[in-house]
Design brief:
alpha+beta; 2 domains; twelve-stranded antiparallel β-sheet; two-stranded antiparallel sheet
């Protein structure tokens, strides 16, 4: 139900992600941050909408010229009441000193905020779309069956990329490299084989640990083979890095597989839940260590200036400032 001009799509399946260990970890991290937790509770209170529980999926579609045209489409599905989504838009707009503008398109209402690209519309029960001025109408026409042959599935190039993508995963995406980007890539010889990239697709899932799949279409089989070799070589160097070994991360490189099939480079990463938990703990410990070091460095370098002497040509006077120590001390947690 997105326009044929779509060249990039991203899908976040919240319904699938909910209940996974990764989801629970993310919720815990949010709740540990009192500021973030309070902001979320305030949003739920004023909008009467709990996005993390009531939204099941977000599907984003973009054309190649989205930056210039301002066109996009974000299709939102869930168990929410559509009226609450509209009311939430009104509430947020009023907080910014603006009012939502309501216009009609056929039997539906379009809602927008002056100066913003997005137009909100209720597509069907439990489905709303936020899209650019032109695309919101195209989405509604496609849903109503008024634009046969003009949907995203009719974009054969994009459809072919999506077919090889694991669309059942919690997060997936696919896209054709915009012509302007392709030209810039070809103009940078230092990128080597990567400069011939034509399209990219991939997915991430957290059902049992974490799995990641990525496919990159390149200009030729030779380019795919060359880039695969370069990436594997870099991984081998990284695996032997002293810091990587000290952190106990070397074994995780066994979970990474990079290979070329024809002109397509494929990357696959598979981690068990135990590995994800272990990796999370190691990285969390590393971040805490870095935070402590940064705090210690900040504490150890107060405004203690060194004696400075400024002598001006032809002037026998000089100005000396004595070392000073800050009287204020900051507490460290």
């Amino acid at each position: 139900m997105v326009p044929k001009e779509t060249d990039i799509v991203v899908m976040l399946n919240l319904k699938r992600a909910r209940g996974t260990a990764m989801w629970k970890k993310l919720i815990e991290l949010r709740d540990q941050d009192e500021g973030a937790s309070r902001q979320y509770r305030d949003f739920v209170s004023k909008c009467g909408l709990d996005p993390l529980q009531e939204i099941d999926s977000l599907f984003l579609a973009l054309p190649q010229d989205t930056a210039d045209s301002g066109q996009f489409a974000l299709v939102i599905r869930g168990s929410f009441q559509e009226e609450r989504m509209v009311q939430c838009m009104r509430t947020v707009a009023r907080e910014g000193g603006q009012e939502v503008v309501e216009t009609s398109y056929g039997r539906r209402k379009l809602y927008s905020v002056p100066g913003q690209e997005g137009h909100l519309a209720v597509v069907a029960p439990r489905i709303v779309v936020l899209a650019g001025k032109d695309w919101v109408r195209k989405v509604l026409d496609l849903w109503d069956g008024k634009a046969a042959g003009q949907g995203g599935k009719d974009n054969q190039a994009l459809a072919a990329i999506i077919r090889r993508t694991r669309t059942g995963d919690a997060l997936w995406g696919a896209g054709i490299v915009p012509q302007s980007v392709a030209e810039r890539l070809r103009g940078q010889p230092e990128l080597g084989a990567a400069a011939s990239m034509k399209s990219v697709s991939g997915s991430v899932d957290f059902d049992k640990g974490m799995t990641l799949h990525v496919h990159v279409d390149l200009g030729s089989e030779a380019d795919a083979a060359a880039l695969t070799g370069k990436i594997n070589e870099q991984f081998q160097h990284a695996r032997r890095d002293r810091n990587v070994q000290l952190l106990g991360l070397s074994s995780y490189f066994d979970a990474i597989k990079v290979e070329a099939k024809g002109a397509v480079l494929g990357v696959r990463i598979e981690l068990s839940q135990a590995q994800v938990d272990d990796l999370s703990e190691r990285l969390s410990g590393l971040l805490k260590t870095l935070d402590v070091r940064e705090m210690s460095r900040t504490r150890a370098s107060p405004a203690e200036g060194k004696n400075t002497i400024s002598v001006h040509k032809g002037d026998t006077s000089h100005d000396t400032s004595r070392d000073t120590k800050s009287a204020a001390k900051s507490g460290m947690k």
